Amino acid sequence: xxSSLKVxxxxxxxxxxxxxxxxxxxxxxxxxxxxxxIVSMMMEFYHMTFGRQKHIVPKALxxxxxxxxxxxxxxxxxxxxQTRYLPVSMILVMASMAAMLFEKDKSSFTDFAYIATGFLYxxxxxxxxTIIAFKSGVFDGTLLLCFFIxxxxxxxxxxxLGMAFGQREGSRKLCPEIxxxxxxxxxxxxxxxxxxxACTLHWVGLLIVPxxxxxxxxxxxxxxxxxxxxxxxxxxxxxxLKDSGQAIPGHGGLLDRFDSTLIAMPLGAIxxxxxxxx
Length: 278
Fold this sequence. Notes:
The chain contains eleven helices and four strands. By secondary structure, it is mainly alpha-helical. β3 (173-175) and β4 form a beta hairpin.
């Protein structure tokens, strides 16, 4: 095994262990993990878009808004407090808007659209994890862990089948102008493995929803994960970058690892809510 593969494998194992512990140990570890993810991923997003030295104050205020929104939603779900306090986080969003007025380079005022995108694209979906992790004020990360397992299996299925059969000459590419290596073979591999994962989680008693909804959930989250992956790939391509960062050795940044989650997880939560299963 090459040294780069060893590093990639070891860091991947550490990543999975940290995620599983953060999702199942207790509410405070979960809160710390998600808050860290919000700050780290928004920071990567802004570094990709602007670099490190541009719009420092507006970016910092928007990242703080993301953490405050998560904390307010966490408190509301954990204690049953009123949700009318959630808009408090919008004060920081407005402060970020105001801070842009004092930037020296007024020609870059439209950059605030990118700053706001970081909040909507990263912080808001991750804040929704509190709704999935709590039920009647009791913390239970089992469903959230199931969501992640389905998403990870979709990624694994797409990668494994895509690399095995989708790179052959004449194989049809999914979105060659965005991600040249993604193939239709990989797409079907990810879809199949995500459905298998959802059904298996149901059979072992972790995903406690009717089997038909497990199948639908597997399909929906696989499609959402693919959309999230392609969106981030397009964003990186727009700024001439390969990875969002170097937080995970051999894997890139946190945003590279959670790009699928940012769309798949909210879709899964919305689907279960529509059928009163959340």
